[in-house]
């Protein structure tokens, strides 16, 4: 399997190279040269398999030439052995057509664990026996940071510098990052929004003076290996609800478009996806783009669903590239225009291509709270604000009654206890395994959200290339 950049000018890489590189040196994002496919018989054959065996079957084409199936299986056994539920990502029924796919049974209680536990092991494997030292830089709106830190803390050959927007993540999310005191973990609270943090990370990759000095890599969903791991749970859920004979719809609360793009990949591989519902909060750039072709940046509004408080969705570029005929030069020009003006119109081809698979909805605070109460009172399920946004959109989606709708439950409700209690009257408790979180010592730096301040901090602590 070979990987190409959405902007057409970066070198073609294999799976090991693309995992360690993260972002293309042309500013683009990597994705496979061609989508692999699974036949209806192969998809049907996933029924009854464990999560690990499903993961091997789905991911094997993407790692071909780099890892054998046996090597991939060994990594998956390690990655998913730390999850608190034997099914890893269990399905929970809400009513006759609505389901939750619980993605929060990993060590940091969020869906990011599904990918990052594996990514940490891939980094360690690919660095073993070499003199390479990775400097991982990331931006987080809450959950990516804690999941990446848990996966990489104490691992040799890797330093992690994680940026989060000061005061714009929940207390649980912040503490899950800042109480990890491993010497290779560096947390940075920046003055600004998640979009500011994400822009800083991209600027570091694109600055030859900085990226030339350090072997930079990414754990955000700009890293292809992370997206690849997220494709698995779409297959795992769908075959339990009747695929491939029966199409299944998914509603995905999203801000950066990574989780829902994994659903797009599953559909390209042959999974019968009836619809992917892109659920946003009031920071609705993705809803505007998909419903009206208007991809223009607004001002970030802080909400009780902070992981979605995003106005620039990195992974949307991958969709634009794939729907635009995979023309790297055209995508580069389109993205340069957006980066200069903070506004973009989707082409007719991109809009028409997206409309065949995607729907979208914008969920305000009242509808989010109503969805939380409906799940609690009607189905006995306490859900977090992000999941509630997905569920609200699912319940409003225009789909045939015989199509099951799976809402991705992206975080444990205890990560957002205040918001859950306001909506439902129920205060969710932290699982026992992190019950002492608020007693742990914190350690992090607070910096201005400037390129000079952040790169100066990293340069003093990172290991330069040999």
Automatic annotation (TrEMBL):
Q: Name the family the entry cites.
A: Belongs to the threonine synthase family.
Top-level class of the enzyme under EC nomenclature: lyase
Name any one Pfam family assigned in the record. Answer: PALP
User: What name is this protein filed under?
Assistant: Threonine synthase
SUPFAM superfamilies, per database record: Tryptophan synthase beta subunit-like PLP-dependent enzymes
What InterPro entries does the record tag this protein with?
A: Ser/Thr_deHydtase_PyrdxlP-BS, Thr_synth_N, Thr_synth_N_sf, Thr_synthase-like, Threonine_Synthase, TrpB-like_PALP, TrpB-like_PALP_sf
Catalytic activity of the protein: O-phospho-L-homoserine + H2O = L-threonine + phosphate
Determine if Iron is one of this entry's keywords: no
Question: Which PROSITE patterns does UniProt cross-reference here?
Answer: DEHYDRATASE_SER_THR
Q: Which organism is it from?
A: Sphingomonas oligophenolica
Cofactor(s) essential for the protein: pyridoxal 5'-phosphate
For the Threonine synthase N-terminal domain, which residue ranges apply? 2-80
Which GO molecular function annotations are given, in alphabetical order? threonine synthase activity
The superkingdom of the source organism is Bacteria
Pathway this chain belongs to: Amino-acid biosynthesis; L-threonine biosynthesis; L-threonine from L-aspartate: step 5/5
Q: Which UniProt keywords apply?
A: Amino-acid biosynthesis, Lyase, Pyridoxal phosphate, Threonine biosynthesis
Domain Tryptophan synthase beta chain-like PALP: where?
87-346
- List its EC numbers: 4.2.3.1
